[in-house]
Amino acid sequence: MHELAWTPPTLQEGLRVLDLIGILAFALSGALLAVRKRFDLFGVLVLGCVTAVGGGAVRDTLTGQTPPLFLRDEIYLWTALLGSGLAFGFGERLARFERTLSVFDSLGLALFAASGAIGAINFGLGPLGVIFVGMLSGVGGGIIRDLIANEVPEVMYRRDQLYATAAAAGAATVWLLFSHLPPFQAQLSGAALVLLVRWISRRGWVRLPVRRLPGERA
Amino acid sequence: MHELAWTPPTLQEGLRVLDLIGILAFALSGALLAVRKRFDLFGVLVLGCVTAVGGGAVRDTLTGQTPPLFLRDEIYLWTALLGSGLAFGFGERLARFERTLSVFDSLGLALFAASGAIGAINFGLGPLGVIFVGMLSGVGGGIIRDLIANEVPEVMYRRDQLYATAAAAGAATVWLLFSHLPPFQAQLSGAALVLLVRWISRRGWVRLPVRRLPGERA
Amino acid sequence: MHELAWTPPTLQEGLRVLDLIGILAFALSGALLAVRKRFDLFGVLVLGCVTAVGGGAVRDTLTGQTPPLFLRDEIYLWTALLGSGLAFGFGERLARFERTLSVFDSLGLALFAASGAIGAINFGLGPLGVIFVGMLSGVGGGIIRDLIANEVPEVMYRRDQLYATAAAAGAATVWLLFSHLPPFQAQLSGAALVLLVRWISRRGWVRLPVRRLPGERA
Fold first, then answer.
1. CB contact under 8 A, C35 and B211
2. Is residue C106 over pLDDT 70?
3. Which residues cross the membrane (chains A, B, C) (predicted)?
């Protein structure tokens, strides 16, 4: 009886697949910006890859894991290359799928924020450290992308989108649930909360305030 | 006889308090810049915190201390959050205290430069390495702040203020005194020298030269 | 019989000398940009040194070597200071030697890319990781230089020069030869290939494509 030659993926394998989807989405976002900025082929590949692996590199550096995961497991860089190559090959046509891309981007944000929080907890950090590392792991790739493209990091301005805020809320969720749930479920719950906050904020129900400057009208 | 229920703080505790004052001042300077740049609430908190902990992160990364101190001891991030929140809440009104802020800023520069130099000496570095690490620890937070805000780091231009120069001079002082004094006194002397150089330079007595370009008048 | 009082340098010593030439060239390129940007004396020294040691710092951080080599061996920082001081002292006159500088720059690129690849191989990375680390070690100093000077990293645009591409090709060569040759010869071969690609690209025989944007003419 060998009906079960195919075994379902373990949860860990499932998370890894989601992780790679996040990598792919971030690679696309970095490479598309590079195409718009008229970088050459190699510049597009480099910006795509750096954006894709940046968040994980921040997470691993702050939690003392050397070498960072993206160097230990080659599938990460291959996925980043694939996404960057797609962006170069299809260019502006991909931009039409902006809505789809944005979903992938949120997924990547969610997964990196949650895995950053887990890493920080395992490293023995306190609540604020966990939130800080989780948040930076989620938004790190995008910040590096915008710095290299010489733009103010978009995340600082996206007040109608609760981007970094969503990542921080997800990391805080992981911290709160960690002592009550198995780590894996805490991680998934944190990632789910990031997606929920992103979805709420995209409906336009919440906006972050901006400090008024003197002489400015309300 | 329990008159001594209150014991005076140890020197180490005293230094920690000064360290936190520096963190607070750097958080204010980063968050105020973010307010001026129209970042949203979360962007203000993030830029404030990153500016506040940046110098210490540079110091701890270069001298192999993981996790960096600001992740091990949560009081650092709380202090950074407090300073950033104050800057968002009071905004332009804080800018009137520019002179006070500038004193705090110099204090932070002095303490981070000196503690970076101590860390580098304990790590076994030579004189130039000690000066380099001490200087970068002092100015690192400000450089990260200006990079994220997409400006040329102010420290590169402040030739009428001897900013990075003061940090380097303080680190050099720590190096020179280290074999003759207890480490703690060497550290305080280095910090004091930074403040002295800052004070002298603010009086306008010293200016660093700028290389003239061809065709330019003296 | 003491005719052999002078012994020829070992290969390792030879490589170190070449390494320092690369440091010197990168220091000149960073400091000259700082002079053009009107940085003050200290800003010129800092940008020159950071550019010179940046590539090696990236290499050592990604391959887990703390402290980075430039902190362990003071000759590196002295060389970087020397190059930066020369650039400040001679300023625009050095720019006339642009062709010579460019040769030094390529030499530095070649040596850092090859030594980064060796470090990554010794660290147990796979082929893509070796290429990524080698490439970043070669171009890292220049990227940091351009970020601090608030410019889009030149390497992203140099499509008529195959700059980062040359570094990646050299790192790939080291990876391919590593199992067939002694490490030292593999390293030298990789560096040689970088120089070859640079020379070919400077003749204008190869150009990297840029993705056309919609509405643009060929």
1. yes
2. yes
3. 15-34, 41-59, 75-91, 103-123, 129-148, 160-178, 184-201
Q: Compute the nearest-CA separation of C179 from chain B (Å).
A: 32
Amino acid at the residue A203: R
Does residue A208 surpass a pLDDT of 80? no
Measured between CB atoms, does B45 come within 8 Å of chain A?
no
ipTM for the complex? Answer: 0.78
Residue C3, pLDDT > 60, answer no
B148/A158 touch (CB, cutoff 8 Å), yes or no: no
Consecutive 10-residue averages of pLDDT for chain B (218 residues): 56 74 87 84 90 88 82 92 91 69 80 90 92 92 84 69 88 94 88 91 74 58
Average pLDDT over residues C129-135: 94
For residue A31 the two structure tokens come to: 């490479």
Touching chains, C (3+ CB pairs < 8 A): A, B
Average pLDDT, chain A: 83
Residue in C147, C157, C210 closest to A147 by CB: C147
Instruction: Determine contact, residues A169/A128, Cβ cutoff 8 Å.
Output: no
Lookup: tokens for C80 = 């970087």
Name the token pair of A162: 């609760």
- Contacts of residue C151 in chain A, CB cutoff 8 Å? 150
**Higher per-residue pLDDT: A59 or A211:** A59
**Which three-class secondary structure string do you get for A8-76?**
CCCHHHHHHHHHHHHHHHHHHHHHHHHHHCCCEHHHHHHHHHHHHHHHHHHHHHHCCCCCCHHHHCCHH
Contact B167, B132 (CB under 8 A): no
- The closest CB to that of B92, out of A63, A210, A214, belongs to A214
CB pairs under 8 A between B and C: 84
Residue A182: cis peptide before it, omega within 30 degrees of 0: no
Please give the pLDDT value at position B1: 46
Closest-approach residue (CA) in chain B for C34 = B156
Exposed/middle/buried for residue C99 (C-beta within 10 Å: 0-12, 13-18, 19+): exposed
